[in-house]
Amino acid sequence: MTTNCKKVFITGTDTDVGKTVVSCAVLDYANKLGLKTVGLKPISAGCEITPEGLRNEDAVLLQQHASQLLDYQVVNPIAYQAAIAPHIAAHNQGESIDLALVDESLAKLPDDIDFAVIEGAGGWHLPISMNKNNSDNSNLFSSWVAENNLDVILVVGVKLGCLNHAILSAQAITHSGANLIGWVANRPTTDIANYDDMIATLRGALAVPLMGEMPYFSSIEDKNNNSANYLDLTSYLSL
């Protein structure tokens, strides 16, 4: 893989806060700039059994929104059927998550790729093992992100409790040594009390810029066609 490929890791304040919506929108945004893009979901759980093997809905969406087609195994090298924490799913199958598979996936990216979006699973500190005695955070996927010098965008699901979750997540990302470049607000429902006040609070509390506000999309078609319009990544993606 060429070192000229810019890579961004999309994490969230929790699970189900809109990481995939934002990841696909980031890909669409980059595609409109004429960049050659790929989307990866290295670790997934909650997969369906298909004739081709396990398939994760989020990973398939990333595959569809990228401008360059990759084999599914490159997009999602670690997949589990059970819709539970991946390290628990692995443990229940007598396995362990091997991040060397993720390294191999990145190494297989074509040399001419300009931009790669890598979507995390759950929140920032995703455990990758059941190790109870590990005190150096090496059993967390976040350590891999930091070690690989990936830029990070934090997705905040704007709802009650998100202020604490967003501030703690931003602090954890910075403490991990990763490069937090911005955050995106995602509106999971139409009925959110004090939305503007929460956005204003986070603008003041987070040291990185707000890179977009995703509205509530009433249809999949609207989300697929218009989500990129709510981002501002031009300066970041100027290669």
Keywords summarizing the entry:
Rossmann fold, 10 strands, alpha/beta, six-stranded parallel beta sheet, 239 residues, two-stranded parallel sheet
What does this structure look like?
Helix content is 34%, strand content 20%. With 239 residues, it is an alpha/beta fold. The protein has a single domain, classed as Rossmann fold (3-Layer(aba) Sandwich), CATH 3.40.50. The strands form three sheets. A six-stranded parallel beta sheet has the order 2-7-1-8-9-10, sandwiched between helices. Strands 3-6 form a two-stranded parallel ribbon. A hairpin with a 2-residue loop joins strand 4 and strand 5. The model has no long low-confidence stretch (mean pLDDT 93).
CATH class: Alpha Beta
What is the number of E strands?
A: 10
Write down the Rg.
17 Å
Helical fraction: 25-40%
> Please, how many domains?
1
Q: What is the end-to-end distance?
A: 17 Å
Helix-strand blueprint:
Elements: E1 6-12, H1 19-32, E2 37-40, E3 43-45, E4 48-50, E5 53-55, H2 57-65, H3 72-75, E6 78-80, H4 86-92, H5 100-107, E7 115-119, H6 141-147, E8 151-157, H7 162-176, E9 179-186, H8 195-205, E10 210-214, H9 220-226
Parallel strand pairs: 1-7, 1-8, 2-7, 3-6, 8-9, 9-10
Antiparallel strand pairs: 4-5
Helix pairs in contact: 1-2, 7-8
